[in-house]
Structure formats: structure tokens, C-alpha cells
Structure prediction request, 124 residues.
Amino acid sequence: QVQLVESGGGLVQAGGSLRLSCAASGRTFSIYPMGWFRQAPGKERELVAAINWSGGNTYYADSVKGRFAISRDNAKNTVYLQMNSLKPEDTAVYYCAGRRTVAAAVESWEYDYWGQGTQVTVSS
Prediction:
């Protein structure tokens, strides 16, 4: 099995920054692409950013392009999400997710492993 644990969430003012971390343990060799999703109250879970195994390919939702950056350190089995210029509409629970297959994916149902989530609240 694989366990994903997120950290780094919190309360920040609009325009501020946060860095989320996702530490993987267990059978980490089985994790290929990783993604960060978020879910706001009353809304569907959406993919914010994704990264392939090597870190050479990334994907960003249009709403966060130019503000968020996803990265990974495979030696530490950790994926990061640097969030800059935060807006109140970025407020959500952020989830780390991993896939067992190499192919990239943007839908939540395509991911096999999930963390428990970390709350990000951006005040105006």
C-alpha cells in the first residue's frame, strides 16, 4: 500500500504564499504521476496541477497558471505545490494524489492513492 500525507496548509491573506508538501511512504516505487486536487464547499474536486515521474512534464489548471508551481523530489518521495499570489477563490481542501500507471491523468477517478487533505484558506 501507499500512504500520502499532506502538510503546509493554513490561513493566509490574499496575495500571500503557501507551500504544500506531500510525503509518500509504503510502496512508493509504484507511484508514477502525482497530482494536487482541491475541493471547495459545494464544488467538485478539481485537478490543480500534475507532474510526471521525472518531473519533466507538468500540467496546470488555467485558474492557477503563472501562480502555482508543482515539483517533486523522488529521493525524498515528496511532491510540492508552491502557491503564490493566492486569491480568496483558492480557498479549498487540497489533496495529494498518485497514480499506479505512467500515463498522465486529469480526472480524480484515474488516481489510485489519496492523502487526507489539508485546508487552505485565503482571506480577502
User: Anything to note?
Assistant: The radius of gyration is 13 Å. The first strand starts at residue 2 and ends at 7.
